[in-house]
Amino acid sequence: MQWASWTAFFNMGGYAFYVWFSFGLTALCLIWEVLALRKRSAQALRLSRLLAQG
Amino acid sequence: MNINWFKYSSPQTFYPLAGRMIPWFAWLATAFAVVGLYIAFAIAPTDFQQGEAYRIIFVHVPAAWMSMVIYIVMAGWAALGLALNARLSAMMAQALAPTGAIFTFIALVTGSLWGKPMWGTWWVWDARLTSELILLFLYLGFIALQSSIDDVRRADRAGALLALVGVVNVPIIYFSVKWWNTLHQGSTISMGAAPKMVTTMLIGMLLMALAFWMYTIAVALMRVRCIMLERERSSEWVKQLSGVNL
Amino acid sequence: MNKAWVIILRRDLLLALRRRSDVATTLFFFLIVSSLFPLGIGPEPAVLSSIAPGVLWVAALLAGMLSLTRLFATDFSDGSLEQMLLAPQPLALLVTAKILAHWIVCGLPVVLLAPIIGLQYALPNDALLVLVLALLLGTPALSLIGAIGAALTLGVRGSGLLIALLVLPLYIPVLIFGAGAVAASQHGMSAQAHLSLLAACSLLSLVLAPIATAAALRISVE
Fold first, then answer.
1. Do B219 and A46 touch (CB under 8 A)?
2. pTM, whole model, 2 decimals?
3. Which domain holds residue B84?
C-alpha cells in the first residue's frame, strides 16, 4: 500500500475532484443503465399482461 | 461452440438463454473491476509527471476502447442482420448502441477531467478527443434513425446500413482529424511500440477494459431481452412470461 | 442503358428549372449564413479572413444539406421512384443521374457564388481560386454522401433534421480538407495535398455512395 493515510487517499495529491468525479460519473452512468433496463423490462412485461387481459 | 446456431436465432429460444448468461457476465465484470480498481489505486505507483490525476486513465482509456470496439461489433451484427435477414442480429445491434454511446460519453467527460489538470483547459481539440466526439455523433445518429422509423423491420435495416456506412467512414474521419490536429500525447499503448507506462498501469487498464467488456455483454443481453419483450409483446411466450393465466 | 440515365438527368433538371425557387433558396441560404458570421464576430478583415475557410465551407455544407430531403421525396410521392426500382438498369447507376442533377442545381451555384462571398471576407485572390477549386472538388462528395442520408430517411417525420444528424459527421473529412486547402493557400503554402485528398473523397464517394444509396432506397421503399 502506498497511501500514507485514508485522508491522503481521498485527497489524491490535490486532484481529488478530477479523479473522484471521473470514477464516480463512470459508476453512476453504468449503474443508471442497469436500473433503467430493469425498469424497461418490468414495463414491457406489465404492458404485455395488460394487452392479454384487455 | 458448435451448437445448432439457428435454434437460438428466434427470440423465444434466445430469451431464456440470454437470461442465463447475464449473471455470469455480471459476476465476471465485477471480479475484473474489483481487481482492476485495486491495482489502479493501491498498487500502481504515482506518476512523477502527472501526479495522482493520471489514475483517470484507468477509466478513460478502457471506456474509449470500448466505445470503438462496440461500434465495430455493432456494425458486425448489422452486417449479419442484413446478409441473413435475421431479426435477432438486428436486435443485437440495436441493443449495443446505447451502451456504446454511454462509453463514448464517459470517455469524453473523463478525458476532459484529465485534460484540465494536465493541459489547463476543459477541452482540447486534439485528434483523439475530437474523433471520440464524432463517434458520439455516429452513435446518436444511429439511435435517432432507428427511433424515427415506425416500421420495425425497416428501422432495423436502415440502421444496419447506416452502421456499415459509419464503420467505413471511421478510419477516414480519424485520418482527417489527425491530419487536422496532432496535439494529443502519442498513443501510450500501440501494437508494436513498447508501452511508455509501467507494467502495473498497463495491467490495471487491461483489467478495467475486460471489466467494461463483460459489463457490455451483460447489459447488451439485458437490453436485447427488453427489445424482444417489446416487439413480441402480443405473442404467447411473452404473455406467459408476464404471468397471464392462459 | 445510357438513355435511361440521360432521361432521368434531364427530367430532374427540367423539374428543378420549373421550380426555380429551389436553386434560389439554396443560394440565399448560403448568402445569409455567410453574412451572419461577420455580424456576430465583427468586421475586422484580419479576423474574417482567418475564419473564412471554415465559415464558407460550413455554410456550403448546410446549404447543400437543405435540399437533400427533396432529392427522392417528390419521386417517391408520384410513384416514379418505384419505377426506377423496378427498372432493368442498375439502381445505383440511375441514382447517380439524380445526384448529378442535385449537384448541378445545388452544388454548382454555391461554387460559383463562393468567390464573391470570399471577397466579403477579404480573401486574397489565389485563396479565392483555391476556394473555388476546393468546392468544385468537394461538393460532389457532399451530394453523394447526402444522397445516402436522403434515401435512409425517405418519408420519415422530421427527416430534415435527421438527415443533418446522420450526414454531418460523414461530411467532416471533406470539411477538414476543403477548409484546410483554403487556409493553406492563405498562408502561402501549397494546397495540393488538400485538393488531392478532396478529389479522393469525391472519387471514393462516387464509387461507394450510389451503391449504399440504392440499398437504402430498397430498404425504405419495400
1. no
2. 0.90
3. 21-43+53-184+194-239
